[in-house]
Amino acid sequence: MKENESIDTCLDRIKQDGYSPTRRVEEPIFIEENGQLIPYGRKIIFDAILLKHEH
User: Which domain of life, per UniProt (predicted)?
Assistant: First the structure.
């Protein structure tokens, strides 16, 4: 996903590019503050496969 992009917008973009999403992975993002790790956000990654186009 791009920064400040909604999940629905990302999925629409993936489909417009001719791919089909197969898996979604979320990874937490932490920052260190005063020696402690604090949750800062999340990174969402989609795996996708190219759709076959018939001519």
Answer: Bacteria
**Contact status, residue 21 vs residue 8, Cβ threshold 8 Å:** no
What are 1-55's pLDDT values in tens digits?
Answer: 888 899 999 999 999 999 999 999 999 999 999 999 999 999 999 999 999 865 5
Range of the structural domain that residue 41 is part of: 7-50
What total of structural domains would you count in the chain?
Answer: 1
Tell me if 14 sits within 8 A of 5, measured CB to CB: no
Q: Does residue 55 fall inside a structural domain?
A: no
Extract the tokens encoding 54.
Answer: 């018939």
